[in-house]
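for the recovery benchmark. tokens below, seq after
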């Protein structure tokens, strides 16, 4: 909304409350304006009601308020109509219909174009660009924002400039131009914080954190936070508390736990001084993580209790859920499986409840779209009635057909909604039954891998235990056999009883492989979770390398940014299976592993100089079958080239979503 209106103080109050994201004040203003004797003030009250309901995420109520505004506003009042169109554009984009969002924004722009209302035209251009961004029409979004940028320069509309910069940063971020996006967000934050455009500055700050996380440049992120804190000075303690808390989080990512605790305590102190429970709760969560990482489990647990209490007061059930997840992982890591299981059950219960609420929210969003379509259909029917008013002989037939069509459409929509609800309820029931089965298995077995399986419960790829054991033990068993192979030449020269002793040791090592497979799996998973695919592959190379017997070469390119966690796990398992086949069958002295990440794809190459095999004769054992199965789950293509006596090459081409 426009920040000022010289002839209408009430509008300026509504506009300021909307910009500051204050739904309570908007609803109070709506009630006050509804009692006015001035019809224009009453119309403004309806606009304030729709704005307040939108800020409260009551999207269906907002839709009905906007429909009421459309009916009550005269065509001669373009100003309020344009503002209503902007709210409708934001609403349509939020409920998942950005094409309708573009249409509403264009309708608003048609009203204000040429009237010199930059403070309404620029926000309309921005919401149109945001809808185009959701449609992935990024070139058109950039064109619209360039028009908005010129209008802000011509009019000196400073807040509009901040809005445009944030929107430009969002488009560039989606294009992968992270450095340019960071520059736009930083400029928007500097202007917004100086000019007290708190909502815009907060949005820019959150986006800056997202860019820093995507780039993985923790050192650069810390410098950025320090420079932003310098710019902020003593102003906006809420922003300072949030910035310092985010700085503490980055320090935790770097493993600087004591420094992170100190920064987070600063954030808590500022948050306490202004009653900012949101920043305090997140900072306490990070402090608990750092304390536990330093081995101070008692203090970490107590701090996490404080964080949970703050989250409960805020009603942040999603944060409470993930806090219990963290506690489950911590207790599991320290061997306290009963405590881990208790928190895991709490996490599962909250997840079920939150998923149910999200389903209800989705139904509400669908109802908003349904209300919009019904309104459009009603308008079309009214136009049709006007057009055929002169044709009295066809009126009854047309009305009857329209009624039958509308009834059939409503019945079809109701049927589709009912079937969709039944399907989702059935899926939810199946998921709950599967979850209960996993819990029963955990209680009956009380083994470590059952907890691991439940902690990995969000992964879609759950294969049978036999295949997973084969994957985990392959490379480690091959490495053990190669290490024993170094001693084989010396065993032939010793006495018979010593030879028997050697074979006994070999047998004991085979038995130990069972335990080693579990340890290998845990270590690989921990390395992948904490450091990513590239570090896990370096550890694998170091494990396999044997001077004078097996030379292992690892080449990676474009792996600076982490992939999706599920993709990294699957790619690591594919490489691990290929290496296991080399160690078991190839008798190779050289092994090469290559991973290349380019935009939209990931290439994996594992080659050796071993004995090879005839691909036309050998259909492939369990190892090759596992490679193909895991690749198929990723939508990847596998090529296996081998010639007897000339080694083997396994190549995998995998599409990735950036």
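predicted aa per position
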């Amino acid at each position: 909304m426009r920040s000022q209106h010289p002839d209408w103080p009430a509008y300026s109050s509504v506009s300021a409350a909307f910009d500051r994201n204050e739904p309570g004040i908007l609803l109070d203003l709506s009630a006050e304006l509804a009692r006015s004797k001035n019809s224009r003030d009453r119309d403004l009250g309806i606009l304030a009601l729709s704005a307040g309901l939108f800020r409260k995420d009551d999207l269906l109520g907002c839709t009905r308020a906007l429909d009421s505004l459309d009916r009550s506003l005269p065509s001669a009042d373009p100003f309020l109509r344009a503002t209503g169109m902007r709210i409708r554009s934001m609403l349509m984009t939020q409920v998942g219909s950005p094409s309708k969002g573009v249409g509403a924004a264009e309708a608003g722009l048609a009203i204000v174009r040429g009237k010199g209302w930059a403070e309404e035209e620029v926000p309309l251009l921005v919401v149109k660009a945001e809808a185009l961004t959701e449609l992935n029409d990024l070139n058109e979004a950039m064109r619209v924002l360039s028009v908005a940028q010129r209008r802000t320069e011509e009019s000196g509309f400073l807040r509009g400039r901040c809005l445009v910069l944030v929107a430009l940063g969002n488009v560039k971020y989606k294009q992968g131009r992270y450095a340019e996006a960071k520059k736009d967000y930083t400029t928007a934050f500097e202007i917004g914080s100086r000019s007290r455009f708190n909502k815009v500055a907060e949005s820019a700050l959150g986006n800056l954190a997202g860019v820093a996380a995507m780039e993985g440049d923790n050192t650069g992120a810390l410098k950025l936070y320090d420079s932003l804190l310098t710019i902020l000075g003593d102003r906006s303690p809420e922003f300072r508390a949030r910035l310092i808390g985010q700085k503490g989080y980055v320090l935790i990512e770097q493993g600087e736990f004591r420094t992170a605790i100190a920064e987070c305590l600063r954030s808590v102190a500022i948050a306490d001084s202004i009653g900012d429970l949101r920043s305090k709760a997140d900072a306490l969560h990070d402090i608990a993580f750092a304390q536990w990482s330093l081995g101070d489990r008692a203090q970490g647990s107590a701090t996490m209790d404080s964080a949970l209490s703050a989250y409960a007061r805020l009603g942040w059930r999603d944060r409470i859920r993930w806090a219990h997840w963290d506690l489950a992982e911590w207790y599991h890591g320290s061997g306290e499986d009963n405590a881990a299981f208790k928190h895991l059950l709490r996490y599962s219960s909250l997840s079920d409840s939150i998923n149910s609420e999200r389903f209800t929210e989705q139904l509400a969003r669908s109802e908003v779209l349904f209300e919009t379509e019904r309104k459009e259909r009603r308008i079309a029917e009214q136009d049709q009635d006007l057009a055929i008013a002169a044709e009295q002989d066809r009126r009854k037939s047309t009305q009857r057909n329209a009624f039958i069509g509308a009834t059939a459409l409503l019945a079809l929509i109701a049927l589709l909604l009912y079937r969709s609800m039944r399907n989702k309820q059935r899926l939810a029931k199946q998921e709950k039954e599967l979850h209960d089965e996993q819990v029963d298995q955990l209680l009956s077995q009380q083994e470590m891998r059952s907890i691991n399986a439940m902690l990995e419960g969000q992964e879609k790829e759950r294969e049978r235990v036999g295949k997973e054991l084969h994957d985990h033990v392959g490379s480690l068993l091959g490495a053990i056999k190669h290490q024993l192979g170094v001693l084989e030449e010396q065993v032939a020269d010793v006495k018979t009883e010593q030879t028997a002793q050697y074979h006994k040791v070999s047998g004991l090592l085979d038995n130990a492989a069972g335990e080693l497979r579990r340890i290998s799996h845990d270590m690989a998973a921990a390395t992948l979770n904490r450091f990513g695919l590239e570090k896990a592959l370096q550890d694998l190379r170091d494990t396999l390398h044997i001077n004078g017997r097996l030379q292992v070469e690892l080449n990676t390119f474009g792996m600076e940014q982490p992939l999706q966690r599920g993709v990294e796990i699957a790619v690591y398992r594919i490489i691990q299976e290929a290496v296991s086949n080399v160690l078991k069958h190839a008798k190779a002295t050289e092994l090469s592993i290559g991973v290349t990440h380019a935009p939209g794809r990931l290439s994996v190459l594992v080659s050796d100089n071993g004995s090879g095999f005839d691909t036309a004769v050998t259909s492939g054992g369990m190892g090759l079958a596992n490679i193909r199965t895991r690749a198929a789950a990723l939508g990847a293509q596998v090529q296996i080239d081998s010639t007897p006596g000339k080694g083997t090459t396994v190549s995998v081409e995998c599409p990735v979503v950036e």
